[in-house]
Amino acid sequence: MVFFDTNILLYAGSNDPKDQEKKVVASDLISALDFSISSQVLQEFISNALGKKSLGLGESNITALIASLSEKQVVPVTLDLIRRAIILRRRFQLSHWDSTILAAAQELGCQTLYSEDFNHGQDYDGVQVVNPFR
């Protein structure tokens, strides 16, 4: 199982012409891989879908995403997860948000995190980052 960062979901749904190449890559990943996400990723998706008008996303896209995730593992952000994220943040000098995503991937035992926001190829305590847009 792999873990998806928010940008994979955003690019898959984006209607912005400048995102079309990334949209194809992200859509292919979503179709081909068994993936998990966290409640944080969902919150970030919703916030960006509503806030970045250039993406062309809205309520119908949010509803469709939530419906499509009914059989996926979605990790809640708990106090224990935040504690692990703090350790990761300090160790790897990451933002709080990025370290929380890593902690969620670790909680599920995911060995691969797809994201464009981390160092491609780096291993973060057993979670290797793949930037599929390189």
UniProtKB/TrEMBL annotation:
CDD domains: PIN_VapC-like. Pfam families: PIN. Residues 2-117 form the PIN domain. It comes from Haloferula luteola. SUPFAM superfamilies: PIN domain-like (SSF88723). This is Putative nucleic acid-binding protein. The lineage of its organism: Bacteria, Pseudomonadati, Verrucomicrobiota, Verrucomicrobiia, Verrucomicrobiales. It comes from the Bacteria. Gene3D superfamilies: 5'-nuclease.
